[in-house]
Amino acid sequence: MPVTHLKKQFSLPECSGDVLTVQDLHFSYPDGHNALHGVSLKLCEGDKVALVGPNGAGKSTLMLHLNGILNGQGDVEVAGQRLTRD
Predict the structure, then answer these.
(1) Do the Cβ atoms of 61 and 22 come closer than 8 Å?
(2) Where are the domains positioned within the chain?
(3) How far apart are CA 39 and CA 19, in angstroms?
């Protein structure tokens, strides 16, 4: 099954002090390649995460959004502050 059709959601306990929140993030490159399609995630202090997937799945594109290099449609917040590229 192509990666674009995979969607899995987990119910996790609520945490206090969200460190990173991504809500409905979309991004397309200038050549028209849709790299991110509604990505949402929430990480709390102390969470351990592995980001894995095949080539072209959007791992690096997501990381470029998390450090503010790319700006897509959707929200990215770090410690409650919205990331924007000014």
Answers:
(1) no
(2) 16-82
(3) 17
